[in-house]
Give the backbone structure.
Amino acid sequence: MQTVVLILQIVISILLVGLISIQGKGGGLGSAFGAGYSSFSKRRGIEKFVFQFTILITALFLVVSILNLAR
């Protein structure tokens, strides 16, 4: 069980780093892949999904980290 929690934590952390890295500070998801400056100030479409998924994965990482400490 301890090994499974540790492997899960490593996989979630790698996923979290990837999700955070594709969220550019100023230009949005389009600029991360070479598109020009976006004039939208709100997250839409895939950017909104990635943002919400990042929040979910962060919460999951927190829970798994607490489980890892409890062992």
In short: The helical segments are 2-21, 29-32, 46-70. The chain has one domain: 2-70.
